User: Which sequence fits this backbone?
């Protein structure tokens, strides 16, 4: 019933049900309801208003509490008052927009019965509640086939014992025999070689390997061919591409500016490595959901912690900038995508459907959705470092060993230049307008003599400030030492931070320019203590921000290091600033209280955390183009730096005061000389103080005040040192810079992070993020935990993500192995055993060969979740090796080939089609991995970073073409590469004119024909027929038939004549070979798996 | 081609109507050109055939849900947000209070209310136009001249004042995600009258709007329902110009035919023939599409009407696209959309946070005359009755400002208009408050417009569904009402 309009008034509900209970019910009333009213409700209303079906408009009529509570439009029935009851108005069709049932009126007698029921007090003896109703349904739904434990059915007996090669074949043959069908003959060897290569690697077979296979009829030859393809590094690329559909891989996040997905390509390469290494699938599951939470898996070649790359899988998709405190729903949409992808990808389950209501058909309650939402809302979506081992230890030691030389040389140089120092200090002119209390040396020098404080006044001011700071500041995190306990739950990450713990006076060396010192650091953790190319992050724990909390961070940072306030797990926070601060500054940050935008206020504050990061660990770097004036050059520059000393909390407007450390020495002994004439003495005093600080620094005994003072002198160029000034400085500087260049910067990727701050989520009523209901304990989907003997249980403050991952990867999960085995079958066979690979619920299709699916799934788990074993088992089968030509009599019985009476013939997917064109034309670059190549575009849009690359993508495989979510690669899209916004387990397969136009006229196809023609014409064949035969064989990986050669020669002759190429010149004509190559591309067989 | 209509039963929110088409019939029918778009993946989406579906698959027609009033839609997408209070929604009280501090109850659907904001009256004067006395400002003199044909809706509301979200909402009925565009839905539901032309054509002006190509995509509908992009400049459609001389291409197509048929087994022959037909269709499109895009043969009067020879490239090409829209509709295309060009560095063409006087005027100069010309031309040719013209952006602009010449994002009440196709000309529906901040009467959201447009095309928006991800999806999600008051 669509009852639009008013929302429920909670107060009324109580009254209504109270009313109902207030009227005494007789047995006659109960019988009246059961015998007369209930049948009407059942037959007329339940289809749209019951837990079994729909609860439209929020109104359920299958439980008494349903009509008592009413729906979105308010109370449905007022007992005793039919004229005021919406239900009655609806069935009478007297209220516009409330006509029920919508497709016609009830018979008058039924209306009369309902009226009488209400008039008599609407007695409803049903005692089941909505929860009971759900429990009953849930129990029924739990009986669905895909939720039953995976069994190990024995392979059935077959009549033709000679045909089966594997157990798979006995399942298949039994099915065929039951229908009186015979399988197809085995495909020809050349066909098998091409099919195997295309299906396993996405590339055509190497000609020599195919020829050897055709020449050797022994069974071992087949096994050898399969093994060589499984060992090919291109196997992993092709399998990875299939999985990328499932996680909807893209290199960008779309929306308004197509913001980059942080180094997503590293995840793509991780998949390639994982499939090539045959990583057990259960481990791949765990890594993609919770790779940051498991013991690292280290790749021996790269030294990467592979596991931490995995969670990029769930970050894919459209991601808005901003946060839910700026616009409703920003984070909730991300969470929806993560839940939808996780449950479809691994479980073939549509938990996403339960965002707004209990699932209509499957054993999934709305609460299940919010159990998962609690997990993902308790997860942080940060950028993480990938390197498990530190490749820089030797270089770091070398850099550290150089620094003392540089310090000594600098100190010597500065001491020796005392005259210069005094002269430069003298150059600071007195500013008669200055009266403020001096906090810097420059301020002291600028003050007119009369305004200089006396020693006593200075001391008084200093004590006042110290007292203020003592009174108001509370240190919440101290980064001046190595003790994690002092860090108050704040965390750091990155090589920069790992090597960045310094005491007072650490010198920072610029990597370019003349200056030998950038500045000195106060004690703390600084990402650039060794190099600005190393990464750093400092992140706060969750800050309970009601009322707002005020912090000051002892900070310094630059080169687009950012600090951001993350609200409600914002993905691309724009409460972010890139500020240039000298070391020692105080950075004020407020963890504000962000109330809800609409709907009633939540009783809990939003989650707020702070994040300080260099570019490499910044989730939002590069941000949307030109955001806050960031230039392309700044995007490319790998340098970025910041550091922290201490983080203090204080009342509003009571932040830290400068403690005058930088000038204290000047006033220390009896104040400054008075009077105009004393200025030279003031300058002398300042110089003395500076040099004394330098002495302490060189001796390794400086303090924060010395650092402040020397930094001021460096900043004002009172102390200068360049390589030009001094050979010792020059030597140390050159040595340092040479070593610094050898540092390997951190490899980073968008991933996830766990903090002990798990919180349950509230149900969003009807999916509206602004209309919140009860808290739901976070955890795994109920039907999954129900299937496990010993479901993992999270620690109290854990998100539960690891336990979710482990539950999904549990050998007892009824769905995980079935869903994955079916995906693999589908990739090898073109169709799955279950033809709805992402939906194993009631809207999916149960498999015809359920026992075979279970047989494979159970073996898959028992044999270690090995994809390669599974692939090997399937392609070895006689079923897979059948020819693709179907027998008409089989088609007549089983037109959809659900019994597998032939191998399905199918067009290549977009990527192998493009790769095949590259391979056959000789343009293929077989390099693996690396940053993506921009696709070719007719029109660029630099503002959205939609840039154009070469027509042939540098010959790289399609998997390396940049998947820009906003405008995906055109050529691939034409051939049904899905727009990567949602899980796609099964691609569309259309045959449409766009594709024909692309094959006829697309610049890429033409370029490949050209490329091939160039190669042919470079060493012309002996006559057109010979050349044609060679090309055909190369394109189809088989010997052409004479008739085919004849047809293609005829084509060549027609094209040659049309283009005016003389007959004797044809065999060496580039134009002619381009036409021949192009015509071969158009052949059906070329782009099909036979 | 009536047989490709596939209107399924009542979706019941996300309900689950039975499957309409059998896989077998679909496979046999596939590959016949744009009109047959849906079949390949419908086959994948639906398993259990019903009697009605089987009859459809066997060539029987499923009638439209209602008697259709119109056959085509032309959507003039005013990307970035035209200011409602400067065009079709006059606010004398706002004008009066220009410069005064803007104090108003905060609404998350309107950007930046509050601190330092001042009311900003209309930058262009309004007058009553035509017989109907419809108010149109001087920004749009040409649209003012066709006021009696416009059905102006002043009470549109959106979800959040963000371009990406609102663009997707306007196009797909969802503010996020991967839903199909309304053009895709309509093309899916009604197919095309011309198998050499796509059902949904995007006349683009070199611009990817916020939200990306998803705005024009088929989403979970079959890929052929997505927009075919026709560029304003240069070659109108990718790959449409034959790379080979005709006799060479013919030789290749003949080779393709003879080779494919020779190698096909008896069970494959139908699919092979279908694939060959696809190539033949493509070959024909190489002439039909450039022909329909070619405006050289138009009369001088028509050229002048649209302003084909106006000053800048922006003006000329927008006019060309409007003229092409008429030609495409004449040729049987179901849904045509035209985007605005971006003339300056900005997030979207009409997105004037500042510089309204310059850029709103510039956008008006580019679009106003061709838009009015299109309506007039359709009417003169008797096509307006069967063509719905929808003029809409994704948002309006704030009646207040931080400056003298800019307005921010605003979806708590804004204006669009419709013309033709049975919509009531010279009428106004819905009312915003005296300042143009929010709707006080007859609020609508875009689903209502979608539902009403579909109604005029003979489609019940609740019954045109496609099963995806366990739900029967529809353009209007779980919303949408047909607004009879908009209809003549």
Assistant:
């Amino acid at each position: 019933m669509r009852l639009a309009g008013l929302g429920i008034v909670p107060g009324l509900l109580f009254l209504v049900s109270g009313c109902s209970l207030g009227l005494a019910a007789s047995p006659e009333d109960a019988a009246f309801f059961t015998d007369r009213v209930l049948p009407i409700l059942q037959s007329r209303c339940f289809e749209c208003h019951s837990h079994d079906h729909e609860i439209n408009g929020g109104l359920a009529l299958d439980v008494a509490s349903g009509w008592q509570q009413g729906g979105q439009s308010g109370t449905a029935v007022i007992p005793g008052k039919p004229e005021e009851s919406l239900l009655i108005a609806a069935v009478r069709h007297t209220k516009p927009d409330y006509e029920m049932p919508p497709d016609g009126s009830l018979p008058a007698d039924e209306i009369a019965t309902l009226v009488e029921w209400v008039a008599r007090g609407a007695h409803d003896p049903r005692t089941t509640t909505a929860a009971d109703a759900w429990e009953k349904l849930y129990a029924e739904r739990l009986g669905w086939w895909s939720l039953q434990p995976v069994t190990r059915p024995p392979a059935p007996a077959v009549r033709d014992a000679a045909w089966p090669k594997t157990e798979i074949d006995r399942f298949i043959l039994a099915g065929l025999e039951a229908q009186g069908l015979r399988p197809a003959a085995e495909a020809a060897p050349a066909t098998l070689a091409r099919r195997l290569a295309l299906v396993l690697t996405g590339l055509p077979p190497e000609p020599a390997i195919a020829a050897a296979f055709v020449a050797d009829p022994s069974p071992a030859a087949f096994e050898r061919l399969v093994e060589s393809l499984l060992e090919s590094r291109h196997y992993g690329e092709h399998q990875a591409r299939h999985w990328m559909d499932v996680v909807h891989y893209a290199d960008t996040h779309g929306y308004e500016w197509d913001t980059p997905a942080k180094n997503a390509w590293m995840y793509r390469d991780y998949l390639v490595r994982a499939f090539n290494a045959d990583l057990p699938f259960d481990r791949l599951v765990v890594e993609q959901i919770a790779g940051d939470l498991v013991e690292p898996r280290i790749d021996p070649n790269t030294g990467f912690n592979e596991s931490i790359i995995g969670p990029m899988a769930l970050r894919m998709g459209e991601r808005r900038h901003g946060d839910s405190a700026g616009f409703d729903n920003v984070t909730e949409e991300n969470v929806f995508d993560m839940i939808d992808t996780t449950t479809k990808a691994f479980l073939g389950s549509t938990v996403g459907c339960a965002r707004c209501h209990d699932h209509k058909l499957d054993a999934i309650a709305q609460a299940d959705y919010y159990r998962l939402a609690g997990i993902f809302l308790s997860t942080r979506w940060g950028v993480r470092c990938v390197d498990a081992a530190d490749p820089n230890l030797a270089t770091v030691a070398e850099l550290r060993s150089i620094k003392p030389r540089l310090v000594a040389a600098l100190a010597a140089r500065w001491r020796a230049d005392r005259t210069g120092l005094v002269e430069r200090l003298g150059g600071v002119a007195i500013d008669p307008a200055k009266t403020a209390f001096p906090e810097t040396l420059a301020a002291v020098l600028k003050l007119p003599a009369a305004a200089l404080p006396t020693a006593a006044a200075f001391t008084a001011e200093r004590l006042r400030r110290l007292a203020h700071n003592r009174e108001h500041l509370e240190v919440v995190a101290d980064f001046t030492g190595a003790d994690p306990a002092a860090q108050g739950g704040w965390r750091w990450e990155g090589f920069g931070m790992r090597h960045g713990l310094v005491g007072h006076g650490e010198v920072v060396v610029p990597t370019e320019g003349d200056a030998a010192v950038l500045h000195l650091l106060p004690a703390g953790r600084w990402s650039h203590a060794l190099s600005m190319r190393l990464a750093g992050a400092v992140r706060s724990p969750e800050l309970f921000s009601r009322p707002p909390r005020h912090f000051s961070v002892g900070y310094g940072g630059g080169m687009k290091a950012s600090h951001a306030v993350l609200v409600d797990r914002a993905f691309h926070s724009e409460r972010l600033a890139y500020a240039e601060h000298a070391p020692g500054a105080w950075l004020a940050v407020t963890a504000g209280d962000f109330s809800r935008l609409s709907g009633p206020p939540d009783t809990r504050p939003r989650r707020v955390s702070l994040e300080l990061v260099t570019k490499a660990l910044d989730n939002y770097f590069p941000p949307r183009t030109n955001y806050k004036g960031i230039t392309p050059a700044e995007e490319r520059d790998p340098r970025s730096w910041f550091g922290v000393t201490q983080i203090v909390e204080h009342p509003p407007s009571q932040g830290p005061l400068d403690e005058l450390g930088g000038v204290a020495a000047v006033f220390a002994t009896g104040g400054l000389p008075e009077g105009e004439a004393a200025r030279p003495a003031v300058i002398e005093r300042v110089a003395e103080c500076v040099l004394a600080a330098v002495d302490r620094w060189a001796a390794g005994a400086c303090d924060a005040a010395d650092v402040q003072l020397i930094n001021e002198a460096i900043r004002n160029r009172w102390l200068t040192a360049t390589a030009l000034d001094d050979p010792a400085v020059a030597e140390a500087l050159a040595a340092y810079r040479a070593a610094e260049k050898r540092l390997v910067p951190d490899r980073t990727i968008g991933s996830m992070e766990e903090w002990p701050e798990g919180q349950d989520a509230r149900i969003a009523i009807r999916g509206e993020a602004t209309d919140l209901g009860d808290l739901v304990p976070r955890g795994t989907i109920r039907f999954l935990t129900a299937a496990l003997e010993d479901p993992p249980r999270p620690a109290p403050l854990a998100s539960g993500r690891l336990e979710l991952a482990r539950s999904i990867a549990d050998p007892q999960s009824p769905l995980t192995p079935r869903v994955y085995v079916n995906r693999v079958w589908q990739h090898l066979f073109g169709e799955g055993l279950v033809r709805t690979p992402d939906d194993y619920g009631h809207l999916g299709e149960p498999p015809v060969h359920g026992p075979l699916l279970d047989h494979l799934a159970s073996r898959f788990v028992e044999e270690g979740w090995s994809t390669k074993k599974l692939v090997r088992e399937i392609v070895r089968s006689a079923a897979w090796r059948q020819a693709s030509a179907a027998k008409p009599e089989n088609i007549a019985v089983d037109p959809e080939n659900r019994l597998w009476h032939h191998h399905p013939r199918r067009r290549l997917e977009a990527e192998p089609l493009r790769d095949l064109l590259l391979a056959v034309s000789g343009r293929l670059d077989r390099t693996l991995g690396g940053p993506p190549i921009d696709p070719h575009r007719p029109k660029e849009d630099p503002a959205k970073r939609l840039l154009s690359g070469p027509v042939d993508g540098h010959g790289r495989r399609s998997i390396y073409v940049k998947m820009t979510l906003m405008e995906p690669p055109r050529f691939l899209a034409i051939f049904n590469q899905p727009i990567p916004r949602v899980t796609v387990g099964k691609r569309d397969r259309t045959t449409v004119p766009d594709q024909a136009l692309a094959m006829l006229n697309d610049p890429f196809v033409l370029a490949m024909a050209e490329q091939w023609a160039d190669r042919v014409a470079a060493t012309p064949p002996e006559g057109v027929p010979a050349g044609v035969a060679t090309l055909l064989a190369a394109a189809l990986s088989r010997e052409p038939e004479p008739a085919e050669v004849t047809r293609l020669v005829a084509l060549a002759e027609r094209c040659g004549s049309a283009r005016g190429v003389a007959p004797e010149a044809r065999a060496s004509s580039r134009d002619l070979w381009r036409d021949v190559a192009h015509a071969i591309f158009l052949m059906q067989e070329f782009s099909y798996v036979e | 081609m009536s047989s490709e209509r596939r209107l399924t039963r009542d979706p019941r929110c996300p309900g689950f109507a039975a499957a309409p088409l059998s896989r077998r019939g679909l496979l046999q029918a596939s590959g016949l050109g744009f009109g047959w778009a849906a079949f390949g993946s419908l086959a994948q989406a639906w398993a259990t055939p019903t009697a009605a579906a089987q009859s459809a698959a066997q060539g029987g027609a499923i009638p439209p849900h209602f008697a259709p009033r119109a056959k085509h839609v032309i959507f003039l997408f005013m990307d970035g947000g035209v200011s409602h209070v400067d065009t079709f929604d006059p606010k004398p009280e706002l004008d009066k209070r220009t410069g005064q501090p803007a104090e108003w109850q905060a609404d998350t659907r309107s950007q930046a209310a509050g601190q330092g904001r001042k009311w900003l009256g209309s930058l262009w004067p309004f007058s009553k136009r035509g017989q109907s006395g419809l108010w149109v400002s001087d920004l749009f003199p040409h649209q003012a001249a066709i006021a009696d044909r416009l059905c102006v809706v002043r009470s549109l509301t959106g979800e959040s004042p963000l371009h990406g979200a609102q663009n997707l909402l306007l196009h797909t009925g969802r503010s996020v995600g991967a839903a199909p565009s309304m053009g895709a839905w309509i093309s899916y539901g009604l197919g095309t009258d011309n198998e050499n032309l796509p059902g949904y054509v995007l006349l683009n002006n070199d611009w990817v709007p916020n939200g990306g190509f998803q705005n024009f995509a088929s989403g979970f509908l079959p890929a052929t329902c997505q927009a075919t992009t026709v560029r304003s400049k240069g070659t109108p459609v990718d790959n449409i110009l034959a790379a080979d001389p005709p006799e060479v291409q013919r030789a290749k197509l003949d080779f393709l035919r003879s080779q494919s048929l020779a190698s096909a087994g008896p069970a494959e022959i139908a699919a092979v023939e279908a694939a060959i037909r696809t190539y033949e269709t493509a070959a024909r499109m190489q002439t039909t599409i450039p022909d329909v895009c070619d405006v050289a043969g138009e009369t001088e009067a028509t050229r002048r009407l649209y302003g084909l020879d106006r000053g800048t490239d922006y003006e000329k090409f927008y006019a060309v696209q409007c003229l092409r829209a008429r030609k495409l509709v004449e040729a049987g295309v179901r849904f045509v959309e035209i985007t605005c060009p971006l003339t300056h560095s900005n997030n979207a063409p009409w997105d004037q946070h500042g510089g309204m006087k310059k850029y709103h005027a510039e956008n008006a100069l580019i679009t106003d005359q061709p838009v009015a010309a299109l309506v007039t031309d359709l009417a003169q040719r008797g096509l307006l009755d069967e063509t719905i013209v929808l003029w809409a952006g994704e948002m309006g602009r704030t009646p207040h400002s931080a400056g003298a010449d800019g307005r921010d994002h605003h979806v708590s009440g804004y204006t669009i208009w419709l013309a033709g196709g049975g919509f009531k000309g010279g009428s106004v529906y819905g009312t915003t408050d005296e300042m143009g901040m929010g709707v006080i009467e007859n609020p609508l959201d875009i689903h209502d417009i979608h539902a009403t447009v579909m109604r005029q095309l003979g489609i019940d928006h609740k019954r045109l569904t496609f099963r995806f991800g366990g739900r029967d999806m529809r353009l209007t999600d779980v919303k949408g009402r047909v607004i009879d008051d908009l209809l003549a």
Notes: Chain A touches chain B through 93 residues (CB under 8 Å). Residues 763 and 773 of chain A are 5 Å apart (CA to CA). The mean pLDDT of chain A is 92.
